[in-house]
Amino acid sequence: MVLSREGDLDKGGRYNRERKADRSEFSAKALTFSTMAVLWCAFLLVATSILPASRMVAGSQLYTNTFSVKLHGPDGANGHVDEAVAHQVAKRAGIGFQNVGKIRGTKDEFQFVHHGLPKIRGRRSIPSVLLLKKDPSVKSVHQQPGFKRVKRGYKPLMPSMYSYLSRHEFLANKFNSYFDKAVEIDEDQERYGQLPKDPLFKEQWYLRNTGQNGGKPKLDLNVRAAWAQGVSGKNVTTAIMDDGVDYTHEDLKYNYNARASYDFSSNDPYPYPRYTDDWFNSHGTRCAGEVSAARDNGVCGTGVAYDSKIAGIRMLDQPYMTDLIEANSMGHEPDLIDIYSASWGPTDDGRTVDGPRNATMRAIVRGVNEGRRGKGNIYVWASGDGGEADDCNCDGYAASMWTISINSAINDGQNAHYDESCSSTLASTFSNGAKDPNTGVATTDLYGKCTKSHSGTSAAAPEAAGVFALALEANPDLTWRDIQHLTVLTSKRNSLFDAKHRFQWTMNGVGLEFNHLFGFGVLDAGGMVSLAKQWHSVPARYHCQGGSHTKIRKFTNKSGIILKLNTDACKGTDTHVKYLEHVQAVITLNSTRRGDVELFLISPMGTRSMILSRRPNDDDRRDGFTKWPFMTTHTWGEYPWGEWTLEVKFNTPSFDRYTKQFGKSPNAGSTAARVRSAWADAASSRGRYGNVDIDRAEEAMMHTGFLKEWTLMLHGTRDPPYSELAVLDPHSKLAIVKKAHTIAGPDTTVTMQQQSAY
Ligand SMILES: *[C@@H]1O[C@H](CO)[C@@H](O)[C@H](O)[C@H]1NC(C)=O
Ligand SMILES: *[C@@H]1O[C@H](CO)[C@@H](O)[C@H](O)[C@H]1NC(C)=O
Ligand SMILES: *[C@@H]1O[C@H](CO)[C@@H](O)[C@H](O)[C@H]1NC(C)=O
Ligand SMILES: *[C@@H]1O[C@H](CO)[C@@H](O)[C@H](O)[C@H]1NC(C)=O
């Protein structure tokens, strides 16, 4: 039924609420233009050596030499336009123009390139657009802006050569004697079967943590328990959207799905990584090995889903990303590809607010609605490597409801120091970051080699893709939402903890434990596969606009805003939501310092989600947020009706905290003078010394902001999501949520006392 379709913007007025719901995620794009300016200002600071000074106009947009061109279809072709027509249009437009191909998932849109234009420049080419537009077959033309997307991988301080195998290990690896030397006691053999015989398996602590290198035994993906149930990812394909995949690698070549692969960085079917002598383009190959490196072949380690197929989608290796490259990548072969894994995103500099553009957003929406023959593609996202100074809810890819964003823990259960936190993270897997350098992620590497030091949340996302591949083999009927529900219900707190004690594990209103850093915990492959086997697809999904505040309200560093909103969750309409999945707070605000604004959303059942944390490097004072959909997963399973609260406030560090953080000891003098100079430093973004205008600095510290809109979007089901599932384990999360759902049905009035009873 259409009601549960995602992002369906074209339905009639009857589905008004739903359309608004989807617009909320779309309208995030309205922001992109203004954020581009911020992004590019930041970028241009470091790019002076590349771009001539004349082009460094602050706030300017950069344009590539590619165009999206929409054509008129011939009558009776149902809007479908042949490739040949597009070739003719390019030819008529003149020398330099080339039709690169149809944009994935569209009937009538093509990507053109003009070889006579610079690959990037500071203004549009009006003549090119006019040339194309005057052709009668052309409906519309958009020159593609270029923007930055970066790989997410923590860069070790050591030179990269150290991250490859030592000569001894390499030879041992080659002669397959490494494993024989290290005879291991395996107390789980009877239960779980043989251990893989791959030389690097014992380094893959994320698959089997025996406490190697100071790790915590049994803190791993529990993947052997999944393999023991007979699944290894057969007939499931994961696409690695990255800088290419070395598909000739001995450990990958038999699992390579060439039909589902493509190179959008250079427009050909061979996504082989471009050579550089620093192995910069090893990222995709490393991610691929984590998912589906072959087992028992004596090469490197073992993939999480070692019989699954891997597709390479090369799309990160050009100087500038375009909307079309992203859209093509995420919409490529949606029936051959089950899972798309992305370990990249907008720059994690703690000052960027950016997300998918229009065509990319449409591709994702098409993927979840139509991909996998209607079950929906699974998009897995690395939550980001910006560390505590960034918030992944400012990354529109990770924060999307249609992606599963994955954070990382290190081998003893702490968060990694590069982890960002946000309320949209659904779960976690493992990556590097412990003191011992041998605790990176062991996987395949370029040119037939192996590495032990793949890193960052980059390394975490593919592990999740592998676990989902196992679940999909166990039950190919799982929809994109089933995978999210399974993730919530089977992820474990295990021994994950916040190294800095900022974020505690908290129970939501239906008894699900979550953590602002780790989501619902670490993926448990064994648990997910066994629940997948008995799973019944969750009921239809609805979108309800729970309410909205649009009066402009001022807030300062002295007084924040506490806004309440009472909702019946669209009761009595055809979009009534009774059981929550995702919740979005769509917010428009500006402030004198965006990075100092913090936002909290409190559900009627009392769950408090931090939907925006302080970002000390974000000194934006102009753009703020425009209809930005802050998302939380923390209220999963709760009832949405009742009173929601939004808290808006400044978190400006006090003098002490400021000096502690930046380690600057103020000059001698009176206390007042010291305070003043510290404030002044804080106010001028790069800590100017000397002639600081102290009055202005103080004024800057008197932060003000204006909240202009808060719209509450509720997404979830009308029917209880797990009613058809049998409870096999009374201590499982499934049992807890089901029980909570029977204690107080959504049609009863729940009192606060009742709520706190569970
Ligand atoms: C593999 O998956 C395809 C659909 O993707 C399905 O048609 C086919 O039957 C499956 N093959 C096996 C052996 O399960
Ligand atoms: C993107 O979509 C928004 C909202 O639908 C629209 O206003 C905007 O013009 C679109 N931008 C482009 C470049 O097509
Ligand atoms: C922020 O919004 C307020 C209220 O609409 C407006 O007066 C002010 O000029 C805005 N500030 C900026 C920097 O745009
Ligand atoms: C707010 O700003 C004023 C002006 O600089 C400052 O005196 C005051 O301490 C700030 N208040 C808080 C709570 O930080």
Automatic annotation (TrEMBL):
Reaction(s) this enzyme catalyzes, per UniProt: Release of protein hormones and neuropeptides from their precursors, generally by hydrolysis of -Lys-Arg-|- bonds
Transmembrane regions: 30-51
GO BP annotations, alphabetical order: larval behavior; peptide hormone processing
Entry's Gene Ontology cellular component terms: extracellular space; membrane; neuron projection
InterPro entries: Galactose-bd-like_sf, Kexin/furin, P_dom, Peptidase_S8/S53_dom, Peptidase_S8/S53_dom_sf, Peptidase_S8_Asp-AS, Peptidase_S8_His-AS, Peptidase_S8_Ser-AS
GO molecular function, one term: serine-type endopeptidase activity
Major location category of this protein: secreted
The keyword Transmembrane appears for this protein: yes
Keywords: Cleavage on pair of basic residues, Disulfide bond, Glycoprotein, Hydrolase, Membrane, Protease, Secreted, Serine protease, Signal, Transmembrane, Transmembrane helix, Zymogen
Active site: D242, H283, S458
Subcellular location, record wording: Secreted
Domain P/Homo B residues, every copy: 537-720
PROSITE patterns: P_HOMO_B (PS51829), SUBTILASE (PS51892), SUBTILASE_ASP (PS00136), SUBTILASE_HIS (PS00137), SUBTILASE_SER (PS00138)
EC code(s) of this entry: 3.4.21.94
Main EC class the enzyme belongs to: hydrolase
Xref: Pfam families: P_proprotein, Peptidase_S8, S8_pro-domain
Keyword Glycoprotein: yes
PANTHER family reported in the protein's UniProt record: NEUROENDOCRINE CONVERTASE 2 (PTHR42884:SF13), PROPROTEIN CONVERTASE SUBTILISIN/KEXIN-RELATED (PTHR42884)
Protein family (similarity comment): Belongs to the peptidase S8 family. Furin subfamily.
Name of the molecule in the record: Neuroendocrine convertase 2
Organism: Cinara cedri
